[in-house]
Design a protein that fits this description.
A five-stranded mixed sheet has the order 2-1-5-4-3, sandwiched between helices. The protein has a five-stranded mixed sheet with strand order 7-8-6-9-10, sandwiched between helices. The protein is elongated, with a radius of gyration of 24 Å. It has eleven helices and ten strands. It folds into two domains: 5-165, 2-Layer Sandwich (Beta-Lactamase), CATH 3.30.450.40; 180-330, Alpha-Beta Plaits, CATH 3.30.70. The protein is of the alpha+beta class. The protein is 46% helix and 20% strand.
Length: 332
Amino acid sequence: MHKNFIDFFNEITNILTTASDLNKSLNSILKKTKTITSAEAWSLLIVNDLFFKTISLKASMNIRKFRFKADRGITGWVLEKGLPLIIQDVSEDVRFDRQADGFQKLKIKSLIYVPLKVQGRLVGILRLINKRQGTFFTDEDLKLLMNISNCIAITLEQASLNRKIEEISITDDLTGLYNIRYLNQSMAFEIERSLRYGSLFSLIFMDIDDLKKVNEKFGHLTGSKVLVETARLLQDNLRKVDITIRYGGDEFVIILPQTTKEAGFLVAERLRKVVEKNIFLKKEDGHIRITASFGVASFPDHAKNKEELLKIADKAMYRGKLSTKNVVFAAK
């Protein structure tokens, strides 16, 4: 394993979950990959142009279309077989084709190929070119690039999903948060990703305590403003990768990708304190205080499908509503 393998992947994960520009993210990740593997260059060959158009990934010096048939070169072989490959010396490989396998003006000596697959479809091929200092690419380098490919595939899959759901109404008119339609899409995506890659995620079900009393005392307009401010509080205190949904009325659902049940509980507890300490409508001299109750469940620990996961998280939240309110309960 590379010396800084864990730190490297933490950095990669941070780039993928915080950056808003997909092109910049990929370039940054693959530059770092080139450095840690001591490669001379990298490239991403696009073999499914339609897919990349849907996610608005632009071609560049390093990201370019593969314009040859599958019977041309080593690249064509990888495209046809869909398998990773190390070539230590291209001069000894009869498949090498200067046009299909070349890169800019570099003299190609050695190569690593890793297919980039999204939902089982081959959409691109990642390459590392020429190990520096006269050494050879190793199985460790190949394993690292395969892991990078998986990380990138997840990000591209999310980008593809985001683009598809832009075509339908996915936001709540009042709060600007995502709505139930997006919740169903997102949970389906997270469950599919969990089943495919062995990842996990947690879900928080949140209900504002006694919002009805705010409506009765100050009016429904004030109650609506409290909902809007609650939505902002949640977004300000969650990661960019987390998904916040207005479930209906005074209920919210939060999807936490790559989050254990223990970590999900801690996130919910932190949000509970944020809501409890906040003075709502302070700028309007409202000075309203509210609390909220939370239920936390995780996939696949607590459920096997999205309906069951929602039900279990809702049940955990309801236990809090029936006890003290202003509390977090984890699914049993």
